[in-house]
Each structure stands twice: as structure tokens, then as C-alpha cells.
UniProtKB/TrEMBL annotation, chains A, B:
Keyword hit for Methyltransferase: yes
Pathways involved: Cofactor biosynthesis; adenosylcobalamin biosynthesis
Entry annotated with the keyword Transferase: yes
Ranges for domain Tetrapyrrole methylase: 4-208
Keywords, ordered alphabetically: Cobalamin biosynthesis, Methyltransferase, S-adenosyl-L-methionine, Transferase
PANTHER family: COBALT-PRECORRIN-2 C(20)-METHYLTRANSFERASE
Top-rank lineage group of the source organism: Archaea
CDD domains referenced in this protein's UniProt entry, alphabetically: Precorrin_2_C20_MT
Family: Belongs to the precorrin methyltransferase family.
Record's protein name: Cobalamin biosynthesis precorrin-2 methyltransferase CbiL
Alphabetized SUPFAM superfamilies for the sequence: Tetrapyrrole methylase
GO terms under biological process: cobalamin biosynthetic process; methylation
Species of provenance: Methanocaldococcus bathoardescens
Record-level Gene Ontology MF annotations: precorrin-2 C20-methyltransferase activity
Amino acid sequence: MVKKVYGIGVGVGDKKLLTLKALEVLKKVDKIFVPISKEGKKSIAYEIIKDYVDGKDVEELLFPMIKDKEKLKKYWENALEKVLKEEGEVAIITIGDPTLYSTFSYVWKLLREKGVEIEIINGISSIFASASALGIPLVEGDEKLCILPQGKDLEKYINEFDTIIIMKTKNLKEKLEKIKDRDDYIVGLVKRVTFEDEKIAIGKLDELNFDEFNDYLSLAIIKRVKK
Amino acid sequence: MVKKVYGIGVGVGDKKLLTLKALEVLKKVDKIFVPISKEGKKSIAYEIIKDYVDGKDVEELLFPMIKDKEKLKKYWENALEKVLKEEGEVAIITIGDPTLYSTFSYVWKLLREKGVEIEIINGISSIFASASALGIPLVEGDEKLCILPQGKDLEKYINEFDTIIIMKTKNLKEKLEKIKDRDDYIVGLVKRVTFEDEKIAIGKLDELNFDEFNDYLSLAIIKRVKK
């Protein structure tokens, strides 16, 4: 059975945002498992690290972008089976950080249940890289922040939080529609942060063109404007 | 006047969690500014990087741990003045990430107003490193997360969020007192994550001993237990 599994966050698009520790572990493990969302499709996480791990044994794990938990379970279990049958130390990589909305967390849970030794190596998250790209801090002092996947309950929390992050949606435009009459907030949109085709925009809601930001690797940072 | 300022997140205690980019920039800049909270006290951020930057020109910036914004302003302006009078490229380092509750963000704002070229280099945040240390993901699927500095409004949001992070307080015990009767949550406490003297604890609120966690570099992760 597998000796140890490293869950490694490889950060965002800029491969220099990898940590020294992630690089060290990627170089020493016997195999690297890379997530793909569709057969034949490139792994974004692997694209970030591939220049560092030339010649390494790499195997794909399929995690399709579907919502049905019962169907997904089959894919997590397939992944578990592949990982368990290795004999040495392996890495499973993920974009961003492994603790924040990562597909890896499901396999992590299954591995834990099997008593496998696991070490998590954190990565740079898109929430921080996006704030940097926009040139604004996420939160200062005693400001409150929340992350609402798919914009859930945005119309409620818009009145209560200083900073709101909307992520995990392909349709930011629709999710932000609910607050379109608010002018006490500024909105930053970021797509594929630090990738070569990164796009950013910042302004009041009615000034923004969302067309180029309807992509799964996009997020919105909504910040209250202090009067 | 200073040519360019890098705001660099040096991550948590483990110096291997520095990014490749942070290391590259730290080695090339002409000077590194390091924050201290008191004259004569060591800079935690500098302790993380010092083995990498032997012989570099290093200067301290004093940011005392006080709350009075008017008094703090003087310190930010002193820092600004020191940075502006440099002639080359400099780095200002900060623990964690520069966009999340970082003292750097105030100097960042002043530098922006002066038209100085600024580049932010993200770092590993204690919120992710703490989840790793506890062995739990922060959020999965469509779970909502919020960060409440000093536990502000915890008694309200405990009913609405899947994961709540309480940070920026020296007194976690008092801040969590408000929810002590809840048994539908599990609480993870982490002090000085990835430092040599890291401490963690996880359990129901009434099982936890907070005594060792009343430290400014501590945080609590409160997670709803799914039935």
C-alpha cells in the first residue's frame, strides 16, 4: 500500500508562486497524480508545475465538473483506488490551496478513513492573488470577510460584510445581478489570475462588462466603499 | 526616490513555505524593510527569511500593536518616509499574505497615493496552514465561510456559516464564550502554526482548554458538524 500521500497546492498560474516546500516534495515523490476534468483535457495544475518535474511518473485522476454527489463519489473512489495501490510516496496536486474548495478534499477524507499518512502542503490561493492583481487589500483592521460560493445569499450579506468574495461559478454576471442597484460597493473581477491570459476589471457594478469573466476560473471581490 | 516597492508575504513559520518568487525578489532587492511591534523586539517576519538573505541591508519599521488610528498614522507615515528616501528597489515583508489583515496594507495605500510602483507577492496565510495542521479542509462544495476578527458577531453568524474563522485576538477563550452551549460545531485551535512551538487542539467547545491559545498568533476554526 501507498506509504505517504502529499496533498500539494500548486497555487495559481504563475509557476514562481509555488512554495520551496512544494517543489522539494514534487521532486522527491515516486509519482505525481494530476487532476483532469475531462478525458483528453489538459490538467491546469500540471501545466503550472510541469517544467519542474520533467521525466516524473505522472498519472491522471478524473474529477468531472458535475454536481451530482452520488456520481462524483464513484470518481473519488476510483482516484482512491489508484492512489492506494502505489507503493512509495506520492503527491496529489491541486490548483490554489488544498483546504479551500478543493476537489482533493474528498479524496483526502477517504485516505484518512483508510489510515494513510497524509501531509498537506499549502499553496497560494486565487483569493489573495486576485486582490494583488486588483491592487487592493482584501481586509484591513477589524473588517469582516465572507466567501459565498455561487453568490449564495449575496443580497443578504451585502449589508453586513466589508468584503465579499464570489467564486465557484461560471456566471458571475447573473450572480451579481441581485445587487446591481447598489452604489456603495466597488467590484473587482479577475479571470485566470497570473495566467498569461489574466483579465481584470474594477469599478461600480453598472460600469463593468462581465462578458469576459464568465469563466470557472474567475472570481469577484466586492468591497464596501467607506464614506 | 524609491524605484519600486515589493510587498512580500513571507508566509507562516516554516521557512520552506516561502514562494520561489518571494525568494528571488528578496535576493535581488537593494534593501529589505522588516516590521517590528516594539523597539528591541525581534521581527517575526524577518526570523522566517533571515537564513536566505544573509548580508542584506535590512531596516526596521515600527508598527506598535495599538488600536488608536490617529497614533498609528504617525507610524505609517514614518515608515513611508523611510521607504521613499531609498533609491533602488526595496521589499517590505509581512507574515502571512499582504492582502489579509496586514499592517503593510496601510503603507501600501500611502505608497499608492505617492504614485510609487508596487508589486505584491502573495504568501501562505495562517488560515490555510492552520486547516492543514488540524487535518481538515476549511470549506468544500458550496459551503460558506466567514472571517470575523475578534469574534465580532459570532453569536449571529454561528447559525448561518459552515465555517467561521476567528483571528486577530489575544483572547480566543473570551471570544468563543458566547457560543459555549453549542454542540453542533467542532472547534480547532491553532497557535503559531508551523513554528517550532506550534500548538493545536480540536474538539467540542466544552472539551477544549484555551489556556495555551491566548496568543496573538492564534486562531480558531469553527466548523459545523453535518448530521
